[in-house]
Amino acid sequence: MSIPRSNYDPRRVCLNPFPNFTLGKHRRTVGIYLAGGLFALANWTFIDAAVLSAHAHSPYGEPDVPPPVHVGFADWVPGICSLLGMLVINLIDKDRVRGEEGFGDARAVWRARLFLFIGFALMAGGLAGSVAVLILKYVLHHYTEQYTYYGYANVSQNVALMLSAIVLWISQSVNSEYEYNLSI
Amino acid sequence: MAQAGIKTVILLSFVLAVGFLMIILSCALWSNWLPLLVALTFVLAPLPNAIFAHCGGDDFSADYEGSGPVDLGRFITSTVVVTGFALPLVLAHSEIIKPGACGMSIVGGALVYGTILAYTAAFRQEDSDYD
Fold first, then answer.
1. How far is it, in rounded angstroms, from Cα B112 to Cα B96?
2. CA–CA min distance B7, chain A (Å)
3. What domain range includes position B80?
4. Nearest-CA neighbor of B44 among B2, B84, B103, B92?
5. S-S: A130 plus which of A39, A59, A78, A115, CB 3.0-4.6 Å?
6. Alpha helices in A18-144 (DSSP H)
7. Contact between A160 and A128 (Cβ < 8 Å)
8. A32–B89 CB contact, under 8 Å
9. CB A92 within 8 A of CB A116
């Protein structure tokens, strides 16, 4: 194709907000390490809440009352949604989403964008679901801070998973632009 | 650092031994052997990087580091490193292990992993001084 790489490409749906993000060479490595660290941090935050719930103590000052709430399967669902969304997002070929033709047909771009949408919808659904679990299961029942921690851990797990996916995406697409500029 | 000689090897082996000593003490002093998982985690941490490093990069473009397997190895490596630090904290938060055991196993794990990093940094120079 002889269409020049301009800032305004009429075939584009999503504009890349960082078109000329030419960072140093090691930024990609740092970004990927950062994404992996955030990923582990997210999951360990939630596992901390789950382990803490399994070894839960009675409320402070009342040693005879059993713990009123535990981490159940409903708490695991938003994290699983976010993990699936992250998997879907990272399985997509990023050049295909960017809409540069030259390989594949135009419908492949459409399908790639559909899968990208499904992935981001799963991640956003996970985040929204974690907030819903926090409010419906913990805040509305007026538990003490000892137990609402489970809900906050769930929310922070999903936020960190989303941050990890974003960092991974940016650090992987930055370098392709960089390499592209180099190879010209 | 290119002149890394036998003194470096001896120093690093001492640091490695001290790291393992800390981890084993953190298990044995409280007779709760769960922190030994930290040693296993940190020993396994550089493994994905080492395995996947040979999957990319031996193409004609030597400086191109944008292949998927290498990224996957780095991702898994940093995940495992954060796991090594997070596991004792989680165990100590739930009062399965004592806070002292948590601190000792974290310090020991950091020493072990730092030894591995320093070893690879010190002895990598010889075979790759052309780039």
1. 23
2. 31
3. 6-128
4. B84
5. A78
6. 27-54, 73-90, 94-97, 106-133
7. no
8. no
9. yes
Question: What pTM does this model have?
Answer: 0.78
Say what the ipTM of the complex is: 0.80
Q: Which of B71, B89, B117 to mutate to test the interface with A (most CBs of A within 10 A)?
A: B71
Question: Contacts of residue A40 in chain B, CB cutoff 8 Å?
Answer: 78-83, 86
Show which residues on chain B lie within 8 Å of chain A, measured between beta carbons.
63-66, 71, 74-83, 86-87, 89-91, 93-96
As a whole number of Å, the CA-based R_g of chain B is 17
C-beta of residue A22 within 8 angstroms of C-beta of residue A181: yes
Contact A36, B77 (CB under 8 A): yes
**Does residue B1 belong to any structural domain of this protein?**
no
Q: How many domains does chain B have?
A: 1
Amino acid, res. B119:
Y
Q: Is B95 left (phi over 0), alpha (psi -120 to 50) or beta?
A: left
CB contact under 8 Å between B75 and A29, yes or no, is: no
List chain A pLDDT tens, one digit each, 184 residues. Answer: 455 555 555 565 665 555 555 555 667 788 888 999 999 999 999 999 999 888 877 777 777 777 788 888 888 999 999 999 999 988 887 766 666 655 566 777 788 888 889 999 999 999 999 999 999 988 888 888 888 889 999 999 999 999 999 888 888 776 555 555 554 4
